[in-house]
Amino acid sequence: MDINIEFPKQDEHYGVSISLCIKNKEEALKIVADYPIVLQHLNGRKWKVRYKSIEEVDGGYIGRTALDTQQGNIYTITDKWKVNATIISIDRNIVCEEAKPHSAVRFNTDFRCKDSNASSFDDYQFVVPASLYNKNDTDNDGVDDYLGTFIQDYKDDRNPSLSITSFSKQSNKFVSLIRADVPTKDESITREQIEQRHFIHDTDIGSLGLAPSEYDTKEFILRCDYPFYERNTFCLNVDRSEWAAYKAVEKGTTIHASYIIQIGEAASLTDAAWNTTLLQMDRILNDEVKLPFSLEEAKKYRRELVHHSFREFKDKKGTPAGYFIHFSPREHYGSQNLLEYGFCGQQTMLSYDMLQAAKEVQSTEYRERALKTIDFLVNHCIAPSGLPEGMYNVDKEEFVYWMTGILYPFQYSENREELEEFLGEQVVSALMEVASELKKVEGNYCRSMVDTMHYLLLCYLQEKEEGYEHKDWLQAVVKFCDKMIAIQNENGSWNRGYSMSGEPLTNPPEWFGANELEQGSGAIFPSEVLVELYKYTGDSKYLEAARRAAEFVKRSYVEEVKYLGGLNDTTHKKSVKIDAVGVMFAMRTMLVVYEQTKEPELLAGAHQAAKILGTWTYLWDIPIDESTLLGKHGFKSTGWAGCDVIPAGSYVDCEFAEFVPDLLRIAEYCKDERLAVLAKIVTRGMHHGLSMPQNMYGYAMPGIQCEGYMTSLWLSDTTHKNFSGAVAKNKGDDNDTTNGLVNGQALYNLDSLKQRYGTFDFDSIIKQVLA
């Protein structure tokens, strides 16, 4: 496989042509930049520029040109090109030689890419980390489910590995475009700039993008812009408004940026994207993630926060009890009245964490509070069908449904004006009808039910190991798992949601799925509890149901990189969507079944999912304005994962920590050191944002961490600025919400690491994994 670079001459100037030739010298792939530089002035015209000269220097080539705009601005442009095996590097310098006052500029390059075996754009697949997977089309209507277009660009701070990977299914060739130099500076974007859409901005943030080619139906375009230009985006509003930043220039201003084109062969889109991730792990990742406190200290304060959130209501029916963690971090626990099980509330996960803590520190109070939490659930919050309820309103002494996560404010109000104060008008407009529809149905999400019962079983096993038998806990789990087997679909899947009697829910379709792929995404959840029950009882029916689900997951989501359905809620468009948590649960499902059946295909599937999970994970620290909350307190993004493709890398959240133990087991089975390093940066990096005595983040008490943090903008063009969620926020904000899941998942990871490896020292952990 040979890569050749040429500079074809046209109209006395030079463009760029890159070709990949296979053994018989046949051209398999071609990349062309007709105009290597396109320069755009703010409020002015665009210039398409070719090189005036090409010089061969030091094993590479230097393309030089000068642009006299005839309007007072003169630029000299120097690009150094170098080919090293499968890597092409481009080092760019633009110097402003003369400038009229108040000038501002940005530049870009379009690379036209064409595989000789491709017949149309349909033959290409893409990964833009945390944003675009395959083509983001799980309803199979031929268009991106969110943006509605394949003309897409993503700011560098929304891109975990600063890359875009394209893959040709017909020839197994891939091309990745990578920002080679890591951005180091950014400033907060103002309301005025959002209004202007195109504006001067002092930033090092560029963007990478893709599009179908306007020249040839058999090719596509990869492009880089500096500073950033997003032609279609949800950063501002649901209308997908474009926006762009420009660098202010004066005489002597120098602009520098560098890029890499990676070309290679891969068996699948997953392997192509993983090759790019590995390259960037070698190039830009610093895995020594620094924290101002130890993980032991973090565990202590996280536990204390959970412990002190406990409330019981002896004057209410059944004596409700649990961990009431759903509040603004700037306030104390507050007078909440909703006891939320599963997902955000995760009462049984927190109970399991606290039983682990009780054992470690010999605290009877820790244990007693966990037991009271579980006993109320088992005795009062499970339907006759065996399915657990989602939420209990203590004041009203009744169950409520669906309104978790982004829909939480709809639980308290139907007043549109009041809701818009919390969510902004765009999100309320998108979700008002959905919330009204959901209120008609008594049911629960598959994930929330499994969350509850999986950790209930772990609590039972933990207590039994300590000499305490809770037969009613086990009976509840058995009844639930038997019900799940009874309602499993013929194809091995489960639905996203069910009525409390166990009827699958399909309406509204944007919430529960429009086809088998989306509706069946509940398949990624139940195997963890079914396998655990099989291990305890030896009853093969539980393993068989889990095996059928794992096979559905592998054939439906792995090969086409369409991991979806991990999150229950959404901000707009559709609830069933591609998200990082969908990858995490799919990975776990295949892993736990493999550990019992030893089917190599399932381990391979889990390994593939783990590689995709790596693409969601930030390998670098995004520059954040020091005047923001995150900037002031030294928040670092390395190790955090993007949330889902609707915010598209603008928002990182808390969930990856729970799945670190799974990732390490896959690393152990496959002897994959890079996955173990990934586990390291996730465990350490995701403790940034935690309030500790050394660094309180302005929060009310130690041990608080928000559900998520804004690493870019998302739906920020709104008339309502003051609200307590993730929408309409600026880069450097938190989402102003902490919930039970945050500390529950972090503690589960820390406890698991200590139990399996005996240490938090990842040098030791990685050695054990690879031994």
Question: What features would you highlight for this structure?
Answer:
771 residues, 12-stranded mixed beta sheet, alpha+beta, Beta-galactosidase, Chain A, domain 5
Give an account of the 3D structure.
The chain folds into 3 domains: 2-284, Beta-galactosidase, Chain A, domain 5 (Distorted Sandwich), CATH 2.70.98; 287-310 and 617-771, no CATH class; 488-615, no CATH class. Helices cover 34% and strands 23% of the residues. It contains 20 helices and 35 strands. The strands form 8 sheets. Strands 1, 4, 5, 6, 7, 12, 15, 18, 19, 20, 21 and 22 form a 12-stranded mixed β-sheet that branches. A hairpin with a 4-residue loop joins β16 (163-168) and β17. α3 (295-308) crosses α19 (740-757). The mean pLDDT is 95.
Q: What is the name of the CATH class of the largest domain?
A: Mainly Beta
Mean pLDDT comes to 95
Total beta-strand segments: 35
Shape: globular
CATH architecture of the largest domain: Distorted Sandwich
Main pleated sheet = 12 strands, mixed
Number of domains: 3
Helical residue percent band: 25-40%
Low-confidence stretches: none
- Beta fraction: 15-25%
User: What count of helical segments does DSSP give?
Assistant: 20
Radius of gyration, taken over Cα atoms and rounded to an integer in Å = 27 Å
**CATH topology of the largest domain, which one?**
Beta-galactosidase, Chain A, domain 5
